[in-house]
Amino acid sequence: MDYTETLDKALYWLRELELDKALNLLYKLLEEHPTDLDLIQRIYPIEVKRPNHPGYQKICSHIFSIQSNTSDFHQLFIKTYVEFTQLTNEKLVFSKQQQFNLLNHLSQSHLLEDAEIFLEQIKKDYPEDQDTAQALFFYCESLINKKKFIQARKELKYLVTFYTETVSARNALARLKYVENTLENP
C-alpha cells in the first residue's frame, strides 16, 4: 500500500465527509505505521467526537500501547487519557504494556494519583517482572522531580526491599540516600 496515495485518498474522503471510508484507509495505514503520530493525530480528533463508537476505544487503546517519550506524543497520551476518563464509563482492560506506559506517562504529568493506581496494579499483577522494578524506579524519579520526597522514600524503600538483585534497586539505594538527606536538610 502506497502511503502517500492512500493518505491522499483518505483526505479526499474526509473532505467529502465520508468519515467511515476515510477512517478505514487511515487505520490501514496505521497498521503498517503504528507509531506514526501524524496518522494518530488525524484519526483521534474524529474518533473523540464519537466516544461511544468502538473506534474511539480502538484508537485510545492503540495510543496507550505505544512506547514513546517524545514530548508531542506525551502531550497526546495525557490528553487522550484525560478525555477517555471524562468521556466514557467504559473500563478498558489494559495490557501489561499499556499499564506500564500509563504509569510512565501519568507519573510525568499532573496526574500522580492516577499513576499511583496503575503502580499498585502493576505491583500486584507483575511482582516478579524485571520491568516492574524499572518502572518503579522511573516512577520514583518522577516523584523526586516533583519534590514528593516522602512518597519517593516509601517507594524507593519498597524497590530496594523487594527487587534487591536488580540494577534498579542498586540505583534506588543512591536515590534513597539523596531523598533522605533532602528530608533531613530541607
Structure description:
This protein has helices at 3-15, 19-32, 37-47, 54-65, 71-87, 96-107, 112-125, 130-145, 149-162, 167-184. The protein folds into 2 domains: 1-93, Serine Threonine Protein Phosphatase 5, Tetratricopeptide repeat, CATH 1.25.40; 98-186, Serine Threonine Protein Phosphatase 5, Tetratricopeptide repeat. The N and C termini lie far apart (60 Å). It is 76% helix and 0% strand. It is mainly alpha-helical.
Describe the SSE topology:
Blueprint (H helix, E strand, L loop, with lengths): L2 H13 L3 H14 L4 H11 L6 H12 L5 H17 L8 H12 L4 H14 L4 H16 L3 H14 L4 H18 L2
Helix pairs in contact: 1-2, 2-3, 3-4, 4-5, 6-7, 6-8, 8-9, 8-10, 9-10
What labels would you give this structure?
186 residues; mainly alpha; Serine Threonine Protein Phosphatase 5, Tetratricopeptide repeat; 2 domains; 76% helix; elongated
